[in-house]
Amino acid sequence: MDCAAKFEKEVAAIPGVTRAELNFGASKLTVQGAFDPQAVYLAGTRHDIVARPAYEKGQEKQSFFAEYKRVIISGLAGCALLAGWVLQHTQGLTSAAILLYIAAMVIGGFSTARKAFFSIRKLNFDMNVLMTIAVIGAAAIGEWSEGASVAFLYSISNALESFTMEKARQSIRELMDIAPREALVRRNGEEICLAVDEIRVGDILIVKPGAKIAMDGKVIKGTSAVNQAAITGESVPVEKNVGDEVFAGTLNQEGAIEVEVTKLVNDTTIAKIIHMVEEAQAQRAPSQKFIDRFTAVYTPIVIALAIGVVLIPPLVFGRPWSPWIYRGLALLVVSCPCALVVSTPVALVSAIGNAARNGVLIKGGVHLEEMGSVAVIAFDKTGTLTVGRPAVIDIIPVTAKDEKQVLNLAASIEQFSEHPLAKAIVEKARQEKLALLPVEDFTSLTGKGARAKVKGKRYFIGNPRLLDELGMQTKETGQVVAQLQEQGKTVMVVGDEENIVGIIAVADIVRESAARTIRELKQAGLRRAVMLTGDNKATAKAIVEKAGIDEFDAELLPQDKVAAVNNLVNKFGKVAMVGDGINDAPALAAATVGIAMGGAGTDTALETADIALMADDLAKLPFLVRLSRATLSVIKQNIYFAVVIKLIAVVLIFPGWLMLWMAILADTGAAVLVTLNAIRLLRIKPELY
């Protein structure tokens, strides 16, 4: 992490570079300006970093030595150290042992010394400088085995740290490999295999069963089940028919389909997700900014203290130089806060990458940290807690012989209407496999209902107001209607010119996962769940009771929702708002964290919210809360561990109890441990139902 930051600064200083920005999590450097690319490459070599243009990524296969160089070097240094120790302590061959110790120092410390040389030229006393001084100093006072141990342990800790960081970065690499690099395309009547960069909007993809879809588009031929887990995190394949949208990187499981391309490769949903995840991993979270400020003060103080440990006892108190030089070297080794610096970014990289692979797009470390301390979650109703479309709930016969007769008559009339309630009735009739009756003289009654002739007889379907106008309202009917309306349902009455045939109640259905989600959120530590809706109080109350919501505000305009969110923030502290990302944009912006549902289908949701649930699935919320809280916990554990280890090491130096190899373990060993601790975040997964 420290080397990467120095590399970024060095590239920024190259003549002609106007901007250099390093994304540590994604291993990506963005450089702007008129500059010599070779200068960037050379800057990388000075920090043991391989830099190459993005377009060459993946084209060059590394040699075995290049891939395992750190491990090989550490192994050779370790062998030399072990051989030297054996010769010295079992054979008494001290001179031969010293030669092997020197070999271990050179092999294990060459790369560190090289980077130290470039750092010290810029008067930058980084970890490489401190380690090199420690090795040379140990040799100078005759502690050959200690110097060799320092070189070996630092070398192997660098190898382990590199390995663990690669593990953390793997989540973003897996995202990049999701979409295929080429596809079978029909163009000008010919079927050809093209690289995705050559595919244009309007091209037709031919996607066979078992193949991945290469580009975003819409199905124009065929039907299939598509596994969208890579984008949305959904475990169950989604049925796709003509006109449905499909995403690059998803897996066509059953039938062959043809897809018309709607977006270029750089504009696909997966490309946007990768870009946003990389940006999110590059952002500095509040805890990381605090650590940066802390280390800026801490490191110079400890280095000054190390110089004092070396000089004051011999010069002021007449103590021997050798033991205090040794203690000063040990203090120098523990002074560089590697574990502290890496403690936060590696946790954020792991958590954000893990979330993206499971269909949750977090657009920055700050939002992840904020989500971890949220006390209350506010929900929009329509399309969030409910499915967002009406469905028939109750059918009550009055003069009809049964429910099917009422439904068949109502659906026959409404089959010509485009009203959402009419579509719900027709859909219910289709589910019941009822054959719709022929209809004549259909007339829509705006705001009231519709009329039509069925089998030569005139019927109507409409709301209770239409019943009042026709003078057909009765006390019994009025009681039933009132009871249904109190339950939050929309009531429609079916009748002829003389009698009421039946009553149909329609309502927006609460999601099956809503109650379970609210329950799991409470178990995860949320204090309250609140619903904010523009709907009437009766409907809101019915939804709240079914979903297990603690409180609600109803009949709210968009500006009222913003005021309600602000009130919750004032009352409870940090508040998350969950909505569709479009209508609820002001409320999402007002909340501490704005969470959009169904981000995979809408660009607006991706742009407006701090966090997007890529599937239209509430069940991802408990996973998000568990992951964010676990991330906060890991960051705190890492910081406390790194600080405590440093303090213990510093205390042990003054009585002479801290050996150089122990100082190495206290520093770079701690960095490896906090990285391994952060990688545990990759194991947190959504619950499967």
Could you explain how this protein is built, in words?
The structure is a single chain. With about 700 residues, this protein is of the alpha+beta class. The chain is about 55% helix and about 20% strand. The protein has 25 helices and 24 strands. The strands form 5 sheets. Strands 12-24-23-22-13-20-21 form a 7-stranded mixed sheet, sandwiched between helices. The protein has a 6-stranded antiparallel sheet with strand order 4-3-5-11-6-9, with no helix packed on it. The chain has a 6-stranded antiparallel sheet with strand order 14-19-18-17-16-15, sandwiched between helices. The longest helix has about 35 residues, at about 620-655. It is elongated and about 115 Å long. The model has no long low-confidence stretch (mean pLDDT about 80). One of its GO terms (molecular function) is P-type cadmium transporter activity. Its EC number is 7.2.2.21.
DSSP strand count: 24
- Give me the secondary-structure category: alpha+beta
**What is the share of helical residues?**
40-55%
Strand content: 15-25%
The low-pLDDT segments are none
Instruction: Label the overall shape.
Output: elongated
Domains (count): 5
User: Major beta sheet, specifics?
Assistant: 7 strands, mixed
Strand neighbour order, sheet with most strands: 12-24-23-22-13-20-21
Summarize the model shown.
With 689 residues, this protein is an alpha+beta fold.
